[in-house]
Amino acid sequence: MAGSNFVDYVKIFARSGHGGAGSAHFRREKFVAFGGPDGGDGGKGGSIILEGDSQYWTLIHLKYQRHQFAEDGQCGSGARSSGKDAKDIIIPVPLGTVAKRVFTDENGDTYTEPAGEVTTHGERLVLLKGGRGGLGNWHFKTATNQAPRYAQPGEEGDEGTFILELKVLADVGLVGFPNAGKSTLLAAVSAAKPKIANYAFTTLEPNLGIVAVRDGKSFVMADIPGIIEGAHEGRGLGTRFLRHIERNSVLLFMIPVDSDDIARDYDILLHELTQYNPELLDKQRLLAITKCDMIDKDLEQQLKPSLPEGVPAIFISSVSGYNMTELKDMLWQALHR
User: Fold this and answer.
1) Which positions ≥6 away from 194 have C-beta within 8 Å?
2) What is the pTM of this model?
3) CA distance 284 to 299
4) 282 contacts 261 by C-beta, under 8 angstroms
5) Rounded distance, CA 296 to CA 133, Å?
6) Residue 44: other Cβ atoms inside 10 A
7) How far apart are CA 178 and CA 184, in angstroms?
8) Is 298 exposed, middle or buried (0-12, 13-18, 19+ CB in 10 A)?
C-alpha cells in the first residue's frame, strides 16, 4: 500500500539531561599551605529540540525511535575546571509538524497542551530544556566565608510524552470523494506522480505537487485522500486526512460531471469539513466539475443552473487538458486575493 512510508502521527517519550554538579574542591599545592576554593562549575544537560528540515516529508523515522534521551552534563572539578556540556538531541522533522505535550491529571485522564510547531527550514522548537550545571565552590567565597565547603548540585532535567502531528503545508488542497479525479489533476498540472487507479482510497497519503503558472510563478497543491460521509467521525481514513486541509489557503472541491447531484455532493463535502473544524469555512473555496471530456458545451450550459450557489465553478478535464490553464489562473488569483 502507498501509505506504508507516510507517517503523520507519532508519540515519543523524551528526557533531557541533568546538569552536572559543581565541585567543592580546594587548591592543594606543595608550597601553598591554605589553597582557597577552586571547584569548577558543572556542565549543562542536553536539551531535546525539534528542527524543521525541508528534506523530510514524513515522521516515519520517529516511529522506530520513540525514546529520545539526552545525556547529563559532566561534573566540575578542581582548578576551576568546568564540566563539559552534554550534546543537545536535535530531531529533524518535516515542515508543518505540530508538537503537543501529554499530561495526566489526578483521575488518570490524559490531556494535551500545545508545545509549538515547526513550519520553516532550520526553525527550532525546544521540547525539553537540559538542566543547568551547578556552580563550583569558588563562586561562594566571601570575606567572611573564605573556605566554603559546598557547591551547587546540577539542575534536574525534564521528561515527558509528546505527540507529533504532521499537517501538510500546501497552498491549495483538493477536496472530494474517492475517484473524483484529484490524483489525475495533480499529475496533469504538476510533476507529481501519484498512484492512480479506479478503486476507493487509491490515495492513502497526501501527495504534493508544484504547479507552474505564468511568468515563472508557482504554488503547491496537495491531493488529500478522498472524503466519505462520516469522515469527521473517523470513518474511512477519517480525521487522519482532514488535519492536512487545515493548513491550505484555498480548497478546490472536485466533483465528477457524472454525479447524480453536484450541489448535494458539494454540501456533503462541506458538511464533513465543518463538522471536523468549523474554521475551515473561512477558507476560500472553488469548485471544479471534473471528467468533462465526457460531455459537450450544450450539456455544460444545461448543468450550470444546478451548481451550488456562491462558489466560483469551472468545468475541466485533466485527461484532455480542457480548461487547465483557466483553472490554474483561477487558483492563482484566489491565492493572491
Assistant:
1) 183, 186, 187, 202, 203, 207, 209, 223
2) 0.70
3) 27
4) no
5) 76
6) 28
7) 12
8) exposed
Instruction: Calculate ∠ Cα 122-240-53, nearest 5°.
Output: 10
- Grid cell, residue 287, equals 469548485
Residue 72 CA neighbour count, 13 Å, CB half = 14
**Which comes out higher in pLDDT, residue 243 or 5?**
243
If one counts every other C-beta atom within 10 angstroms of the C-beta of residue 214, the result is 9
Give the pLDDT score at 255.
94
Coil, strand or helix: which one is 244? Answer: helix
Q: CA of 65: how far to CAs of 10, 62, 91, 131, in Å?
A: 10, 5, 10, 23
pLDDT band at 201 (very low <50, low <70, confident <90, very high): very low
Alpha helices per DSSP H over the chain? 60-63, 182-189, 239-245, 262-276, 297-303, 324-335
Quote the pLDDT of residue 135.
93
